[in-house]
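Researcher: Good morning. I'm working through a list of sequences from a screen, and I'd like to move beyond sequence-only analysis. For each chain I'm collecting a predicted structure so we can compare shapes side by side. This is the next one on the list. No need for commentary yet; just the structure.
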Amino acid sequence: MKHILFLITLIVHLPSLFSQELSETIQKSNTPRTKLEIQKLSNDSKLLLRAQKTVEAAKLAEKIFELSPLSPESNYIQGQIYFVKKDYHSAIMEFNKAIDKQENHEPSLFMMGLSHFKLNLWRQSLKFFEKACIHSSYNPYYRYNLTLAYYLTGNFDKAKIEAEKTIELKENYYKVKVLLLKSLIKLNQKQEAYKLAHSMYEKNIELESILTHYANLQIDLYSNYKTAIDILKKKKSLSPIDRRLLAISYMETGNYSTAISNYKILLGSNFNLDEDSSNYLKCLVLSGRKNDAEKLLKNLIQESPHLRTYFIDIMNNLLEGKELFESHYSPL
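Model: Good morning. Structure tokens for this chain:
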């Protein structure tokens, strides 16, 4: 009977005992000394992780857990360890545990977004980057990643807004200026894009990232083909888009031989367009290389029989134009 009474008493008081133990744990975790020690261990772990010392960082995470099981820092560090190892799925699980302990733990929110981002789950990363920016609204690096996620998911309006906010926080953050430039172009705000590109060009900012866009805007807005050529000559390596812009610019300035050289390279790649082929034909005809133009026409028809009429019409129009040009009157 005594045993039964003891069990009943234990059952009645068990919840209060657990509650008291939890309360003591919370109080211990919230002492200034404990918080300071956890912060120091967390800072030390960052230095270790930058040096790829994951085993040592894991030991610090264990120490934090012993000091305060309720602190999100131990799970945050474990998540970073998995992130360094490129095990992003496991990292997400640990960051999620940290967020469960403290829903506004902005480092975990940001790393949760970054882990999804690394898995190319850009839409999933957005909500975490957004929350991280809410809880750390003055962090330009968080906002840059949010800008990038908006851009990659096709939300160019929001990408533009976030890029501008980031620049307000860190005016010399040039990478985000590139994103702003790209967003303006996607939004067809070409005059604004041109002003930004021109400013960056004049200051030698992120040239390799903006030269193609700047040259394209010169052509698109002002037909400045010579300027576009000068701009693209500064590129260390030429992409197919650069080749196309150069070829068009040389063609429009009457330098058909150089245009032909660029079109040859472009047509030898897998990035050529029908427009490139027709322009190549035009350059051959206008430079007087009729035989080469006919050979090209034959190859184009063999490669794309469904475009036979399209290319033949272009060739006939070019030859007619060439013939009419040669019949012009000149007093000298």
